[in-house]
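Team,

Forwarding the record for the chain on the shared tracking sheet. I've put the sequence and predicted structure together so nobody has to dig through attachments.
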Amino acid sequence: MKLKKDNKMKKTNICLVSVFLLLLSNIVLLVLNKDLTYFLSIILSLVIGFFLLKKDKKEHISVIIPQIHEINNEMTPAEVIIEKKEIPLEIITDSLLKQIENVIDSLKSSILNEIDIFLKSSWNMKSSILIKKVNEIEKKTNEANNSLKNIIKGIASGVDYDMKQSRSNIERINNLFSIIGITKENTELLKKNSDFLLIIMNTIDEISNKIHVLSINSSITAARAGDVGKPFMVIAKEIRKLSEDVKRSVEKMKGYSNILKNSITIVSDLNETVDKETHSTYTEFNELLNRIEGFFLSFSVIEGKLTGNNFNSSELITLINSDFNDASFFDIESEINKMKIEINKTVLTNRKDCEVLL
């Protein structure tokens, strides 16, 4: 708004000067028509009216007043000369035109100097305000960047801890793989031994059956021998009893062997399940670790971007402090708009990076 107001004031002053010069050209025509009284009243009205418009600049009027007196002093002798008709009118007109040109140039220089002084004083005041605002923008932007950097550092620290814990868990899983491998080997060995034990028990069972048959045959032979075969009857009876005991023991051992075999099968199946789940967990932990490492690297990249994107107002302040002719209000406004766009881009980029990570 202030820039627009200054530009409007500039245009107004230029319009006033243009109107002033236009009216002076009309005055020249009046001189050529020999109406000097009307001419003097117009030029004095113009000068006084112009400075009445600048009544808030009383100190500037005092600079121009001597030139108004000079116009009166120069115009009065000319009017007297014309009335006395001592010199031809053409010579008087040429002389008046030259005097008018000199007065116009003098007034023009004074007016332009006053305008320049006014604009420079306004510029100095507004440039200090601009510099203050730019410094405030720089401070707030850098504070926001530093705050975001601290947040990212905190998150990165937590991510680093999680990454170390994940690596420790992966090492434990690797150790568990070794234990599972040893357990599987022992289970397979136990399964083979149980099968071999079952074969032995079957063999003992067969031997027990044969002994039982042999004891029955011995009892029959001893019975046929009468009193002579009675001792063999006792031996055959004990052998039959022993074979029956062996048979019962073998049956029990077979039952235990079946239980052991079933347990081995269950343990083997459990080992397979644990092995699969462990491999799956290991894969997931590896993927998680890779993601965490990616997050950590991304946080480092974002932190680097934030460090590089700290707002630097030195170029803008240099532009503001440069000469008035070298840097206009439009230059400053354009530079501020560019920096606003860059700040918005930086904020948007950082927001997108954080959204991707989270």
